[in-house]
Design a protein that fits this description.
This is Glycerate kinase. Keywords: Kinase, Transferase. The protein is α/β, with parallel strands linked by helices. It contains 14 helices and 14 strands. The strands form three sheets. Strands 5-3-4-6-7-10-11 form a seven-stranded mixed sheet, with helices on both faces. It has a five-stranded parallel sheet with strand order 2-1-12-13-14. α1 (about 15-30) packs across α14 (about 385-404). The protein starts with a strand and ends with a helix.
Amino acid sequence: MKIVIAPDSFKESLSALEVANAIEQGLKQVIPDCDIIKIPVADGGEGTVQSMVDATGGSIVSLEVMGPLGHRVQAHYGILGEGILGAAINTSSASVSRADPTSKSPHQGAIAVIEMASASGLHHVPREQRNPLLTTSYGTGELICDALNRGIKHIILGLGGSATNDGGAGMAQALDILLLDGQGKTLPSGGAALANLAQIDVSNAHPLLRECSFEVACDVDNPLCGERGASAIFGPQKGATPEMVKQLDAALAHYADVIARNGISDHRDHAGAGAAGGMGLGVMAFLNAELKPGVEIVMQTVGLADKIRGADVVITGEGRIDGQTVFGKTPMGVLKQAKLQGIPTIGIAGCLGENANAILDHGMAAIFPIIPHLSPLDDVLANAKLNLCNTARNIGAVLMLGQR
């Protein structure tokens, strides 16, 4: 029996690979001779870098970059492998010089995966210091710069979880794109400063940008400005008051005006332009990136369709399966791929939330929560591995009954 295990992480508890290992352990107790293929996956959000590195045997690059408030923070990104487990790579700083475009790199042909939140995430800013008028995406640009300098020509960037509302301006500055005010001076960091933008100069941009293709995982469809824009919808969680929301929205509108005046395509009304404080607009304007659903990018990159071919059953899961799971979450992405090949799919979750059965209506064979009894949250998280293993063992026993 061939079984493919393709789960997301159980947030605050287990990585996607650890989830897959626990499910494998439980299955092997009752089906010791089954052929198991483990494919840690994600939906483009938190944990995507680790899951894709684990799935491909890649490596993690750790480095120090500018955080949202201008302080140095530790961040990381992944370089995907080709099935051979890679060792971690550590660097002390992202203050790297430009690479020679003619030089060869051991990473040429590789794919880098970057989570914006790693460098520019809300978790880097204490609640009492949250101020999207000031926060910058510069650190995310430093991660991109480091990847480019390693010779990487394909970058996957996951949006979400950011502390910023600067439209990707900080990212652009880290890549040597000049944002200037009316006096020709470099624009300060933060969303408020965009109101003073007068000129954009891309002539000195990182020389390898044009050689790199960017795919951006984006699962929201908000435009840049207005009632559904970046400032109004996402600004308050980043510390914006109603007055700040108005200021930031006007600043982003002016930013888009200047981008258009400088001959760069105007994407302000494009679905997803308002993602991550307007980073959606920034990546389209400065990286010529395409916004795609995160789960689609991940599934394609790890080659899920090929790896599940010929499987008898696919097992997927995430920390919580509920009514939102069908809207682009990992179990739904895995289910779609399996359905195309007529392979039954089973879901395992830390818990089942409201309308969890919606995924059954989309064709999943069954869903199982792993919590055996009511317990404090800390106990539930601590026992996730054991509970996963036990649930998988019971699923394996049922599968064996079907073989008789």
